[in-house]
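Pilot study result, target chain (234 residues):
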Amino acid sequence: MATVTSRSAADERSGPRGWSSTGRAGRAATGSRVNGAVRRRAPYLLLGVLLVVACAGAGVYVATQAGNRVTVLALARAVTVGQVLAGQDLRQVSISVDSGLDVVTASESTTVVGTTMAYPAPAGTLLSRGLLGVAEVPAAGSAITAVGLKDGQFPPSLTPGTHVLVLISPPASTGTSTASVAAPRTVRAVVTDVQARQSEQTTVMSLELPEAGARELAGASAAQVSVVAVGGGR
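Predicted structure:
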């Protein structure tokens, strides 16, 4: 005799044999946790992608900027007004092309060697066409005077083109108290030449300064004069 096994309505609702509502609930919870983890990791993955793109873009920018440079001429040593430029007076430096400076490129070196300096300039100055030509020193309203100085009256590293302050002290007078000594007068000037005279232990410095200051400096004794280097451009 055949045996018939019947399933209750509850068994029909529970799904295929061996499944249970508890099993389905467990699998649903597991899937929910996986999906939640993926959703939580998504912002970090996106951030990582953006960082990679940003770094790549920065590398391209740096490489582009490094390539946008040009080799120009600079003074290898100090030059004086009226000096004829030689190849040894120049060196090559690399600068950014968007610097906006009026410079002479290295490929133009043959056009400037043999030309005359219109102004004095210290070593390291970028060479420009404006520095070349007929001597422009002294300028209108200015004069050039020379003064012999001892060590300690000026910085030993002064070169042509350096901007300085000339301090002219009043002449010393006997019987004058220290409290009543007047402050030294200061005059702005530009060094045009420096010549050391070892036999006399004196350095003769030529200075371009306003005419009134030049007359006052010419009438002062060397002991009254001191020179201080300052910043500034022509």
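One observation from the pilot: Confidence is low (pLDDT under 50) at residues 1-14, 55-65. A full batch analysis is planned for the follow-on phase.
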